[in-house]
Write a structure and sequence with these properties.
heterodimer; A: alpha+beta; OB fold (Dihydrolipoamide Acetyltransferase, E2P); 5-stranded mixed beta barrel; 6 strands; elongated; B: mainly alpha; Rna Polymerase Sigma Factor, Chain: A; Arc Repressor Mutant, subunit A; 2 domains
Amino acid sequence: MTELQFFEAIGGLDDDLVREADSRPSAQALPRWSLWAAGAAAAALVVTVGLSALGTPQADGRPIDLPAAIIGAVNDIIAPWPRETIKPYPGDPAIPEVPSSPFGVAVCWAYDATDKHLMVGACDYVFTATVISRDQVKYVEASRYSERIVYTQITVQVEDNIKGSLITESPIQLWFRNGPLPEDRVISSAPEGYRVSPAPGKTCVLLASAWEDDDLVIPCGVTVVSIGSREELEPEEFEAKRAELLAEYRQAYENEDTKWNNDGSICRYDVDYAEYKEGTESPEK
Amino acid sequence: MDNKEIVELLFRRDERAVEELRQKYEGLCLRIAGNLLAQKEDAEECVSSAWFEVWNSIPPARPEDLRTYLCRIVRNIAINRLKYNTAEKRSPALAVSLEELADCVPAAVESDRLLAETISLFLRNQDEAHRRVFIRRYWYGDTVEMIAESCRMNSRTVATYLFRTRNRLREYLKKEGYNYD
């Protein structure tokens, strides 16, 4: 069969499918950026709520330095920002058409960051990995309110792919997106379940997405789930916890909620990346 | 005028039906034909042929979905013109690149109709956005940029959707017994 014959055969698709494809997209088909935009907007909102413990000066009066807070001061696996919490909005959020404006997203709604089915559905990759190192922190100036987005880069060794296929032969680098942050680089509060990057040696379940530049990013507001450290836990205990979380997230993937509609991007560490680049850089008119 | 009324006009052999069709769907038909054929004249000729074919086929046909019925006629005529113009893929006469479908194409197929039914079933199990993008690309022949604009995505995302859906379709067809050797 030739490509043209195949193309011709596709002409026999059911009428309702053909009609649907050329109709107005439903809210379900909104691209995933809505979720992360909403996450950022939600984070922006909570940042403005007011100063809480992390935002207050330390005992000696010095303000907390965020890079230090992320890289140096966080010794344990996942250090939460436990000062202010926001409860998820009850029920499914309405998804209106998101208006664009020079000031960013003008709408804000809450989502349940602890809903595994939802979060797995919204991410491109779900995997377990052990953190090798924290590499650098990058600040990106936001366009409004002089806020900054902070990205923490870490190197991890992927162990189990739950959703998507990342390479396991060598370590990969990914970014944690935190913020936005006010000009003084002090986070005053954060959504429930908000985490900074895990410490080296820890093994975690990570939910990440491919970004526009093919980087792998853990978006703001996505929870990192710790399995623990092989050095600190008994092997049986570690394996039991690992198996439990793997089963939990595989089950979540099998029943993923695609309401937020993952756009299925591919990052540079995907096993299919070379083929994908070849495919998308060919003249697909 | 709604489509039922147009069908009734066709049944009464009233030529106003063709004018109504032209007013309502000429743009859509030209888009479909133009997506497949590089030459504007070819596309226009296809659409003219489509009016004639609709006139000849209704009655006895009484399509429930006149719009899709018409689009399918235009698509078939355009594909036949494409075959007539050239059988070589990626020839200048071919507006849509078929090479990207290469990995999905089974070695041999017993029935086109059965294949279309199988692909329909596959698409019903995809989420709406992936389904929409796939059909816009391979049924309507729309460009990645056109799809991106209408679906409010960026082009890269559309290309990713297509890539992933093609891969999944290939796996699905393999499971359904289609041969790729």
